[in-house]
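Re-run with default settings, no changes from the original entry. Doing this only to confirm the output is reproducible before filing.
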Amino acid sequence: MIKICIIGNSDLGTFFNYIKLFNKKNIEFLIISTKKKKFKKLKNVKFNFISNLNKNKFNTEAYKSIKKFNPRKIVLFYTRKIDKKIFNNYRTYNIHNSLLPYYKGLDAIKKSFKDKNRFICSSSHLVNEKFDSGKIIYQIVTPVKTRNIKFFEKVAF
């Protein structure tokens, strides 16, 4: 059984759109989220809500859950820094909705749009101590079809 932990502070819409791809595989997910999300019960998905109000409390509680679940990988859909004890002990990836290393941090899509880029990119990188600075693992590039911020946001996610 492959175990993957997802940490998020969004509604994880993209993940839930594609979860059916993993239903027939030997993959189990633990979702640690700062949002109370109601979703259809799935046999291969466990859900753990942790309040995001206190960064230290969130990281401590998340680490306990992760340690108990013992995942092979952690994937972040999370806009805050996680504690180094998480990414130092587990291979942790961030899904970043822009072209790295050029558009780091929050509002990367808006910065890319403002710069009139002709491509929209999503990047996956290993997490380290510097924000959006880990080794880039994978990037997906899509040509811009329309100069519209909603289009940028939709494609990037």
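Strands lie at 2-8, 27-33, 45-49, 73-77, 91-96, 119-126, 136-143. The CA atoms of residues 113 and 149 lie 7 Å apart.
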